[in-house]
Specification:
By secondary structure, this protein is α+β, with helices and mostly antiparallel strands. Helices cover about 25% and strands about 25% of the residues.
């Protein structure tokens, strides 16, 4: 049976153009493939709109003062398509600890991380601090079929090096909540922003 963990990533796509590779070109290709794949996008929409947003709304309204407040509609803006991450092993490279505000993201959104490969094989986890500049990094132990959420704009996070023989695959996306998220926000420090889909539930 084919497994994503056995996906072999061409070595020339692992280094940047300045080092003789075509990492940027490969990343753009993957992004374009996701953005133009309607069956995948339809499945992603169903996943976000039936599994993610209702739970997020419930958490937002669980401390409502009365039933009327709890039943009010909420508008969300979710990243579409998500970002696909490939991390082949064995390798020593890591992405340094960072928060997404460093890359121009605003505070009114939450990150959702969805692993597609078995962490027991890849030995790769997403490490995240509990709050801004706390420095208490702990792994979010998540397997395929599970989702982790964190406030990536403030909390620094990173993934450890993949020293296994397998490829780590995951996707992630952000969800903005009306009243906290500005859909007209202009990102600073990056050349492109993510497309968003607006939905009210």
């Amino acid at each position: 049976t084919a497994r994503l963990e056995n996906w072999e990533v061409p070595t020339e796509t692992l280094s940047r153009k300045s080092y003789g590779g075509n990492c940027e070109q490969a990343a753009a290709y993957l992004s374009n493939q996701l953005a133009s794949n309607e069956p995948f996008l339809n499945l992603f929409d169903r996943f976000v709109e039936t599994a993610i947003l209702p739970v997020l709304k419930q958490r937002l309204t669980q401390n409502a003062n009365n039933a009327e407040d709890a039943n009010q509609v909420t508008t969300f803006y979710y990243q579409r398509p998500p970002t696909l991450r490939l991390q082949p092993g064995p390798a020593r490279a890591i992405v340094k600890a960072h928060n997404d505000a460093e890359y121009g993201h605003q505070m009114g959104e939450l990150n959702f991380w969805v692993p597609l490969t078995d962490r027991n094989l890849t030995q790769v986890d997403l490490y995240c601090e509990s709050k801004f500049k706390e420095g208490d990094y702990n792994p979010l132990v998540v397997q395929p079929g599970q989702v982790a959420s964190f406030h990536g704009s403030s909390c620094r996070h990173y993934v450890n090096a993949n020293r296994s023989i397998y490829t780590r695959v995951s996707f992630d996306f952000r969800v903005g909540v009306e009243g906290y998220f500005d859909p007209k926000w202009q990102m600073v420090g990056t050349t492109s922003d993510h497309d968003r889909k607006k939905i009210t539930i």
